[in-house]
Predict the structure.
Amino acid sequence: MFKIIKYSFYDLMRSRWSYIYFAFYLLLGFVMLFLNNNVSKAVITLMNVIVVLTPLIGTIFGVMFYYNSKEFTELLLAQPLKRTTIFIGQYIGLATSLSLSLVLGLGIPFLVYGVIESTVIWNFASLLLVGVFLTFIFVSLAFNIALSNDNKIKGFGIAILMWLLLAVIYDGVFLISLMLFNDYPLDKFSLIACMFNPIDLSRILILLKLDISALLGYTGAVFQQFFGTSLGMIVSFLVLTLWIILPVWRIASKAKKKDF
Amino acid sequence: MIKIKKLNKNFGKVEVLKELDLTIIKGGIFTILGPNGSGKTTLIKAILGMVIPNSGDIEIDGKSILKKYEYRNGINYLPQIANFPGNLTVNELIEMIKTLRNKPTKEKELIQLFRISPFMDKKLMNLSGGTKQKVNLILTFMFDSEIIILDEPTSGLDPVSLIQLKKIIQEEKEKGKTILITTHIMSFVEELSDEIVFILDGKIYFKGSVQELKIQTKENNIEHAIAHLLLKENV
């Protein structure tokens, strides 16, 4: 398994796109710090970018990588390797290289700016952690979609639709339902609804970590009660982990049955 | 020895292999012939475990290979289309495949034979189709394995490399290897093949030597003999 991870990782580390992605975050980090002139404000702005962008990049790279390496996967399938080793190895290689672009790209400007001495170091660290989680989640979802669709265009379409659904449409439907059922107690409902969308869950986790939950009003108070406690934190990270484990498990079981 | 018993494979509603039985004895060159879409590649991929059959069994040396992977250590496979991760160099790719199997290799000879050394440090995406096919051949023949499976090995090769390829195949045969080849080039078949396996619509219609094929079809030319086989079975 390690060999597959290593070579997928090497392959990506030499690809132009990894550098473009890395350079983008590097630029974004410097621009944010320059414009905000304040680390903690920059972290908040970055959050909005990260919770939308890392899933999108994870989805696109995941689908593209799978389709592009299809013939190479066939070469590996003829070697004495387990199928799960090949696919999980490629998945970990890709997700790790994307995460590295994110962590280094944002880490360098903030380090230069002196984030270590500032008070927001933990907020910044949790932002990166959430970004890494989202990368792993969406790459695994993208792999699932690509494995189930041999047609590239269809696979790509479904993957983008999934991102759109989780990043934009889900929030819309969520808000509308909150408005419609305004008369009912909605705190439990909204708590549970967040768990079903990794993007929402990540956003709320960061918002609460940044201690600006007052902005969220009453619901924010409920969330603060739940997520603010260490139990809430643990549950949320467990749910995020589950969002990785379940799709990865499906990659493994789907890969075992597929014809190449 | 490869033994295939009542192998069935459907892709959706299309039945590609139907109750296919085939025994391939150890040693010799076996060419698998048949029109496009007759199930040649599916059969090969089933032996390699890349296609999972709906029913039936495949045994190599008496052991079922379904759902296993270690047995592939004893098979060299040349895929039809040579496409590799573009950002690796030829050298890195060869090293990678080498580390996946812990076996002695002879890639140096092959690199010299196919005159690939100027390309060793080039990225694979910058290579021409023919050069990629040569890299593909090196990856296939560098291991010493009992079974060698070649899917359309001649595609994109220049005449010099083609002669080299034929030479390598002959050498491997002399070492007692079992070699399976699919091809559409009849001169290749006539020159090399010990036995022909003719597949049509997922079944085996003929199995025997080139001579036997000519006698059975009463044709002198192998191309005509195959055409005869095709026409007769279709009527």
